[in-house]
Every structure is written in structure tokens, then in C-alpha cells.
User: Which sequence fits this backbone?
């Protein structure tokens, strides 16, 4: 099972990762949601492990969360990430059963609890992590397409590969616009739309990146498959994709978007 590096966690706390949106008067950095989105995008890009969103949201409410001294997990739609490593669990984790997680860097437990209404900020920050994954796999695909040669030419010169790379870029940039806009408006419908676009950009982008790499993308020497596995796990957070689809549909039907 994956182990959380407490030294890294405390270092993140010292850098203000968890206290980013906490007011300065309370010992935080005093920034807002747009800045948090940029930071979580980079966290997704580098596959930073741990219950990042849960601990960030607990800053100011749970002692030690803001400084990284306390690891906080949250019951989220019947799943809990990093339960065994957490010092504090928000929500009822009674009867939690360990699952074999698809992502080797995200241990999971299932709990028999119901599905509480998702926190819009948690949805948006998860979307920001997905955006980071989408951007990173685009970089990896382009790098491989330029460097790998077949028949004496870079594979990126072949139309099929070029189209895959272009599709990754288009989806990532579309998701970027939606996620950044939602960070400014903080409107639930905007956040739901951003989540859907970011999930698609991350999952489809990582799958297409694997296609560009071929069998090399599945090896432990490559990070490509890890991005795909993390992206799949993130799609189950905060009510899952269906919750965001229903919220967006309701907003469109009421003409309040």
C-alpha cells in the first residue's frame, strides 16, 4: 500500500499549499480560488499524491491541517482516499473496507454511508488536478512523437499520430478555459461544466497519450499510465460525473446559467 511522505506534507504546509485561501489574520496566505486552481493544476501535472483537496479544505477548521502537520481525509460519495494514513477523517467512515485501487498512489476504502451533496470547491480543485494531468500528457505525447522514429521519420510526422496529439491539446485548452472561468465566477453550473470538460481532457488525453507511446506507456519506467489511472480515480470524486451532469442540466433547464 502507498505510504504518505510526511516530510513532503509538512513542506507543502510551509509553502502555504493548504493555507492558500485562509485569511492572513488566521495564519494563511490570503489568496483566492483562482490562485488555488493554479496550484492544484500543477499538483495534478506532477502526480502529487495524498488527500490534497481534503486537507486544503480542512485548513482553518482542523488543527494542523493548514501547516501540514495533520493529514485529513474526507468521506466522499462512499469512498475515502488515504484513510489509513489520515490523522483526521471528516465524515462517517464506520465500516470502511479497503479496496484494491486502480491507482497505486491513491489507496481507497469504501464506506456504506450515503452520498452527501458534493462541495463545489472540492469539485473545482479536482477539476484543476485533472487539467494538470491533461496538460502533462499532452507534453509527453508531443515529446515522444518528436523523438520516436519509424521508417526513418519521427512518428509525429504521421497523420494519425499528429491528430491524436492535436486532440489532446484541444481538449486540454478547452478544459483550461472552463476551469479558469469557474474559478473566477465560482458558479455551481460553471464548476459542473469545468469538471466534465476536465475529466474528459484528462482521461481521453491520457488514453491517447498511451496510444502515441504504444506498449512503452504501460511500463513502470513511464508515467503515462499513472496519469490515466489517477484521472480515472478522480472521476469518482465529489459525486462522480453523473452528479455534475445532472447539476448542469438542471441549471440549463432553469435558464439560470
Assistant:
Amino acid at each position: 500500500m502507498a505510504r504518505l511522505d510526511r516530510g513532503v506534507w509538512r513542506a507543502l504546509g510551509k509553502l502555504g499549499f493548504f493555507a492558500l485561501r485562509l485569511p492572513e489574520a488566521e495564519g494563511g496566505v490570503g489568496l483566492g480560488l483562482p490562485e488555488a486552481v493554479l496550484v492544484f493544476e500543477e499538483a495534478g501535472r506532477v502526480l502529487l499524491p495524498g488527500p490534497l483537496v481534503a486537507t486544503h479544505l480542512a485548513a482553518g477548521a482542523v488543527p494542523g491541517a493548514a501547516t501540514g502537520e495533520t493529514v485529513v481525509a474526507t468521506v466522499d460519495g462512499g469512498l475515502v482516499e488515504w484513510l489509513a494514513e489520515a490523522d483526521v477523517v471528516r465524515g462517517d467512515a464506520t465500516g470502511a473496507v479497503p479496496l484494491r485501487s486502480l491507482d497505486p498512489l491513491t489507496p481507497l476504502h469504501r464506506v456504506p454511508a450515503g452520498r452527501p451533496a458534493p462541495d463545489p470547491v472540492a469539485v473545482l480543485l479536482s477539476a484543476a488536478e485533472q487539467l494538470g494531468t491533461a496538460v502533462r500528457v499532452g507534453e509527453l505525447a508531443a515529446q515522444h512523437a518528436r523523438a520516436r522514429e519509424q521508417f526513418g521519420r519521427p512518428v509525429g510526422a504521421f497523420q494519425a499520430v499528429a491528430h491524436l496529439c492535436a486532440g489532446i491539446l484541444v481538449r486540454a485548452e478547452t478544459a483550461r478555459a472552463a476551469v479558469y472561468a469557474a474559478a473566477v465566477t465560482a458558479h455551481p453550473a460553471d464548476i459542473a461544466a469545468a469538471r466534465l470538460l476536465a475529466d474528459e481532457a484528462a482521461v481521453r488525453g491520457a488514453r491517447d497519450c498511451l496510444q502515441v507511446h504504444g506498449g512503452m506507456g504501460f511500463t513502470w519506467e513511464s508515467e503515462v499510465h499513472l496519469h490515466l489511472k489517477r484521472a480515472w480515480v478522480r472521476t469518482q470524486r465529489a459525486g462522480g460525473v453523473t452528479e455534475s451532469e445532472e447539476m448542469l442540466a438542471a441549471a440549463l433547464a432553469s435558464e439560470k446559467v
The mean pLDDT is 91. The longest helix spans residues 120-147.
